[in-house]
Design goal:
ph1033 like fold; 4 domains; 7-stranded mixed β-sheet; 5-stranded parallel β-sheet
Length: about 700
C-alpha cells in the first residue's frame, strides 16, 4: 500500500484546552485525537493510519490553513493520559517532524485541495495526490521537506565524535584514491550492465508476465534464458560483484525452489519437498508475484523498506536487492544483519528497529559525512565496500575489549585479515603496528625486559646488558602519541609459555588497568623485577633513562597505554591452547574464524579474473569435505580446512569449469598430508589410507 498523507485538526477536544493541546503537539511530537475507537474518526485514527504514513496537523479553511506539525507515524495508537496533556486522548508518535516555523515557509497551498472550499473540513482525512492536482503539489512539498528533516535529524544524532569523523573521512579519502582507474570504470560499467538486465525482470514483474521459470530454475535448463538464468540467481549471484552478496542462507528461503531433478519443487512455507509444477505455479502466483510487484512499484525507499520488513518471505536480503536495484543511492549494498547492526551502533544514537531501516539511515549519514557523489555509480559501490571493510576492521580494534584472540582452523585468514585490517585502520602507517610470532623459546626478556649477551669484551668475556623487550619498546612508542591507536599483533601466541612471557605485567593488559598517559594519570603503573637495576643505571648515566617506560617520583615503572590494542592469533587445532590459563583467558575477547564459504564463492577466480561456471557446486564440495572431517571422521571443527586451502583451485583448474580431477590434484597436493597427520591421533596406521580415500571421494562427489 502506498503511503498516505493525513490531515488532522489540532482541536483535540472541540475547543477545550486548545492552547494546551497545541503545546503538547509541539512539545511531545505526537498527533492527538479526542475520540476513542468507538467513534468513526477514532477508528480511522487507530486502524486506518499505518506506521510510515504522514500526518500533517493543520487547522482552518483551505484558503487560510494554519500549520502546527508534520511527521512520519512511528507507533500504533494509544488511548492514554500523557504527562504534558490536559486529559486522556488517543495519540500517535511522530518522527522526523517538520516544525511549525518550517511548515509556514513551504508555501503549502490548500486552495482546490481535497475538501475544496468547505468551511468545516473533516477532523481527519487523507489527501488524494493521484486524483487532485493541488494535493499532489502539497504531498511533493511535504515529501521533499521530510527527506531534509530525516537527514538533518540523523546528522544531529550522529554518534561519532568530531575526532572520529575526521579519522573516518581520512580513511575514506585514502580508500578512494587507492582505487585504480580501471577498477572505477569496471564498477561503473558493471552497475549499468546489471541495471539494464534488471529492467528486463522489472518489466515482467510490473506487467505480470514473470513466470515460475523466470523466478526459479537451474542454469543448465533450456528455459533459463533471462540474465543470470533466472531471478533468484540473478539477485543472489549475478549482481553480487558490485551490489554485494545477498545470500539467503539456503536456497529454500526463496520460498519456491526447483529441485535438482528439474521436475519437482520445494515449497518452504508448507514444508513440501516434492511439489508438482502446478502446485509450485499456484503458490508462486498467489504469494510471490504480488509481493515482488508491490516492492518494485514503490518509488519511495521507505515504502520499500516497510514492505520488505513486514513480509513473511524468508529471504529478505534478496528482496532488499530489489530495492537496491531501484534505489542505488538510498541503501548500502550490505545485507548482513550483524554488520549493519554494528555500523548503526557505531554511527547513530537512535532507536530504529528494522535492519533495513538501519541500512537506509547509515547510508544517509555516510553519504553526507563522506560527501559522496550520488550520481557516481562507482563511488556508491566504493562506499559500501569501504563501510564493509571498516566494520570488519573494527572487530580487532574494540575499545571495550582492547585484547583480542583470533582462533580457528589453519587457513581461515586470521593473519591475513589482521594485517589487512591494520593497514586499513592505520592508513598505511606501519609504525603504528607490530607483528611478531611467538615460539617455545620466547621469554620475558624478549618481551618486556632482561639481561642479554651483547658482544665480547676486550679480555674475551661475554658482555651482558639490560635491554628492553619488543613489547615494552612498543608501549614506549605508543605512549608518546596518546591520540593515535597502536596495535601489537602476536601470531601463534599459544606456542610460548604465556605466564612466563608476561610475568607481572599480565594484569596491565586489562582495560581498567591501562595507563592513561594523555592525562598523566600514573595510578596503574607498576614496578617490574628490573626497575631497581634501571634506577641504579640511571644514577650512573642519564642515557639509561631510555630503558624506562615512565619515571614516576624517581621510581622506574611500567604500564600498558590505553591506546594499545593487543591482538593474538592461534590455530586451535594445536592443543597448546591449554597454555592459556584462566587468568589469561578472561582478559581476552575471543573471535572464532572458521572456513568462510562465501569467500570461496566470491573470491575464487579462473586465472584470477573470471568466475567458475560451477563455483556453487565446488563450494558445496568444500562444505561436504569439512563436514566429513568434523562429523564422520569425528575430528571436530578445529580440524576442518580453511578457505585459503580451497581457493588454490583457481591455480589448478585449466578451464572455467572445476572438474573432479582438479579436486583430486588439490586434495593430494595441499590437503592429504595435513589430514593424514590429524588422523594419526585417532586411527591406526593401517586405516589411514582408506580414510583419506573416503575423504577424497566425499570431496569429489558433488562435482559431476
Amino acid at each position: 500500500m502506498k503511503r498516505k498523507y493525513w490531515v488532522l485538526s489540532p482541536n483535540v477536544m472541540n475547543g477545550a484546552d486548545e492552547t494546551e493541546w497545541k503545546n503538547a503537539i509541539n512539545n511531545l511530537k505526537r498527533a492527538f485525537i479526542g475520540y476513542d475507537d468507538r467513534h468513526r474518526f477514532g477508528q480511522i485514527f487507530k486502524n486506518d493510519i499505518r506506521i510510515g504514513d504522514v500526518i500533517l496537523i493543520a487547522q482552518g479553511q483551505n484558503s487560510n490553513k494554519k500549520f502546527f506539525l508534520c511527521g512520519f507515524v512511528d507507533a500504533e495508537a494509544k488511548y492514554e493520559h500523557l504527562d504534558g496533556t490536559p486529559e486522556t486522548a488517543q495519540n500517535r508518535k511522530l518522527k522526523f517532524t517538520i516544525p511549525k516555523e518550517r511548515l509556514e515557509k513551504l508555501g503549502l497551498d490548500f486552495n482546490d485541495s481535497t475538501w475544496g472550499e468547505s468551511k468545516q473540513p473533516a477532523t481527519l482525512y487523507h489527501l488524494k495526490p493521484n486524483e487532485v492536482q493541488a494535493d499532489k503539489k502539497i504531498v511533493n512539498l511535504l515529501a521533499a521537506e521530510l527527506e531534509k528533516q530525516i537527514i538533518k535529524q540523523l546528522m544531529e544524532n550522529i554518534k561519532l565524535s568530531a575526532e572520529r569523523q575526521i579519522q573516518i573521512k581520512a580513511l575514506w579519502n585514502k580508500f578512494k584514491t587507492e582505487t585504480k582507474e580501471e577498477d572505477r570504470k569496471f564498477n561503473n560499467d558493471e552497475v549499468e550492465k546489471r541495471i539494464a538486465e534488471w529492467q528486463l525482470y522489472k518489466d515482467k514483474i510490473l506487467n505480470d508476465t514473470l513466470s515460475l521459470d523466470d523466478y526459479t530454475n537451474t542454469l543448465s535448463s533450456s528455459t533459463a534464458t533471462m540474465p543470470g538464468g533466472y531471478l533468484c540467481n540473478f539477485l543472489e549471484r549475478t549482481t553480487r560483484i558490485v551490489l554485494g552478496s545477498s545470500k539467503p542462507g539456503t536456497a529454500f528461503n526463496f520460498e519456491v525452489k526447483l529441485n535438482d531433478d528439474n521436475t519437482t519443487y520445494h515449497i518452504k512455507s508448507i514444508n513440501q519437498s516434492n511439489a508438482s509444477r502446478q502446485e509450485a505455479e499456484n503458490y508462486f502466483n498467489e504469494n510471490i508475484k504480488g509481493l515482488l510487484k508491490n516492492i518494485v512499484s514503490q518509488t519511495d525507499p521507505l515504502e520499500k523498506i516497510q514492505l520488505v520488513e513486514n513480509t513473511s518471505y524468508s529471504a529478505k536480503q534478496i528482496l532488499m536487492k530489489l530495492a537496491v536495484l531501484d534505489n542505488l543511492s538510498d541503501f548500502l549494498y550490505i545485507y548482513s544483519t550483524q554488520w549493519l547492526e554494528e555500523l548503526y551502533n557505531e554511527f547513530i544514537d537512535g532507536d530504529a528497529e528494522g535492519i533495513f531501516t538501519k541500512n537506509h539511515q547509515v547510508c544517509i549519514i555516510a553519504k553526507n559525512l563522506l560527501e559522496v557523489n550520488e550520481q557516481d555509480k562507482n563511488e556508491l559501490v566504493l562506499l559500501s565496500r569501504f563501510l564493509w571493510k571498516f566494520v570488519n576492521s573494527k572487530a580487532i580494534a574494540d575499545t571495550n575489549n582492547p585484547n583480542v584472540i583470533m582462533y580457528g582452523p589453519p587457513g581461515t585468514g586470521k593473519t591475513f585479515s589482521a594485517k589487512s585490517s591494520l593497514d586499513f585502520v592505520c592508513q598505511g602507517d606501519t609504525s603504528r603496528y607490530e607483528v611478531l610470532q611467538f615460539h617455545p623459546s620466547f621469554t620475558y626478556e624478549d618481551f618486556i625486559e632482561g639481561i642479554k649477551p651483547k658482544g665480547v669484551s676486550k679480555d674475551g668475556n661475554i658482555r651482558f646488558e639490560l635491554v628492553n623487550g619488543v613489547f615494552k619498546n612498543f608501549c614506549i612508542k605508543a605512549k608518546k602519541h596518546p591520540k593515535k591507536d597502536f596495535y601489537f599483533v602476536v601470531d601463534e601466541i599459544n606456542r610460548a609459555n604465556l605466564s612466563t612471557v608476561f610475568g607481572e605485567t599480565l594484569s596491565l593488559l586489562e582495560k581498567d588497568y591501562r595507563h592513561d598517559a594523555e592525562n598523566n594519570n600514573n595510578k596503574n603503573l607498576i614496578r617490574t623485577q628490573y626497575s631497581t637495576l634501571i634506577e641504579d643505571l640511571i644514577k650512573e648515566d642519564d642515557k639509561f633513562k631510555d630503558l624506562a617506560y615512565e619515571i614516576d617520583n624517581n621510581e622506574v615503572k611500567f604500564g600498558v597505554p590505553k591506546n594499545v590494542f593487543f591482538i593474538g592469533m592461534m590455530n586451535d587445532v594445536d592443543k597448546s591452547i591449554d597454555a592459556f590459563d584462566l587468568a589469561l583467558r578472561r582478559r581476552f575477547k575471543w573471535i572464532r574464524k572458521d572456513c568462510d564459504y562465501e569467500v570461496i564463492e566470491e573470491e575464487t577466480r579462473f586465472k584470477g579474473k573470471e568466475e567458475f561456471q560451477n563455483i556453487g557446486q565446488y563450494v558445496k564440495a568444500c562444505e561436504k569435505l569439512n563436514n566429513f572431517i568434523s562429523n564422520d571422521l569425528g575430528l571436530g571443527k578445529s580440524y576442518e580446512f580453511g578457505h585459503s586451502f580451497f581457493m588454490k583451485i583457481g591455480d589448478i583448474a585449466k578451464r572455467k569449469e572445476i572438474t573432479a580431477n582438479n579436486i583430486e590434484i588439490l586434495f593430494n597436493l595441499y590437503l592429504r598430508p595435513t589430514l593424514k597427520e590429524y588422523l594419526r591421533a585417532v586411527f591406526a596406521e593401517s586405516e589411514l589410507d582408506s580414510k583419506l580415500d573416503e575423504a577424497l571421494n566425499k570431496f569429489k562427489e558433488t562435482i559431476k
